Amino acid sequence: MTGAWPQYLLAALLAAVPPSGDALRGADSFSTIPDRRERSLAVFAEASRVLLHPRCVNCHPPDDRPRQGDRSQVHDPPAVRGPKSEGVPAMHCASCHQDRNLEHARVPGAPRWHLAPLEMAWLGRTPGQICAQIKDPARNGGKTLEQIWEHSAHDELVGWGWTPGHGRTPAPGTQKEFGDLIRAWIDNGAACPPATEATR
Amino acid sequence: MITLRVNGAEHRLDADPEMPLLWALRDLLGLTGTKYACGEALCGACTVHLDGEAVRACVVPLSRAAGKTITTIEGLSPNGDHPLQQAWVELAVPQCGFCQAGQIMSAAALLAANPTPSDEDIDQSMCGNLCRCGTYPRIRAAIRRVADETKR
Question: ipTM value of the model?
Answer without folding.
Answer: 0.96
